[in-house]
Design a protein that fits this description.
- By secondary structure, the protein is an all-alpha fold.
- It has a domain of 99 residues: YidB-like (Arc Repressor Mutant, subunit A, Orthogonal Bundle), CATH 1.10.10.690.
- Helices cover 68% and strands 0% of the residues.
- It is built from seven helices and no strands.
Length: 142
């Protein structure tokens, strides 16, 4: 689990740097046009049922790194994934495998009432995802 801990390192401090997995999830959400944009893009590119489970109040349906990668690539976010993997010094498929674990929780965390915020409403705040890192990974900050 040290790879995941390394990725999350900067999210544990107040500074969510470009090297953290939660920060990358946040960047994907921002580039997609917020939670609404990301949800719409993933639905459009084959992950509709899974994404609805992330937004809803029930259990989050799992997706594979390959499924997530294909949807994000088709949605125009491939260069962001490539840059993030390069900065982290990992293979893009390894990054996608980790993101497929974190992104469902991030979307779930940002839609607490089971509703996607309306366009232009509830600007998304990366610090709200930093608290998610603590919940997901035990908050064992160094």
């Amino acid at each position: 689990m040290s790879f995941l801990n390394d990725l999350l390192g900067s999210a544990q401090g107040g500074q969510a740097g470009g090297s953290s997995l939660v920060s990358i999830a946040g960047q994907l959400i921002e580039k997609a046009g917020g939670v609404q944009g990301l949800v719409a893009m993933l639905q459009q590119h084959g992950l509709g049922e899974a994404v609805q489970s992330w937004v809803g109040t029930g259990a989050n349906q799992a997706v594979s790194g390959d499924q997530l990668g294909q949807a994000l690539q088709n949605g125009g976010l491939g260069s962001l994934l490539q840059d993030a993997a390069g900065k982290l010094g990992v293979d893009q498929s390894q990054l996608l495998g980790q993101l497929s674990q974190v992104l469902p929780h991030a979307v779930d965390h940002l839609t607490p009432d089971g509703q996607v915020p309306a366009q232009g409403q509830g600007g998304f705040d990366l610090s709200s995802l930093a608290s998610l890192a603590g919940k997901l990974f035990g908050g064992s900050a160094a």
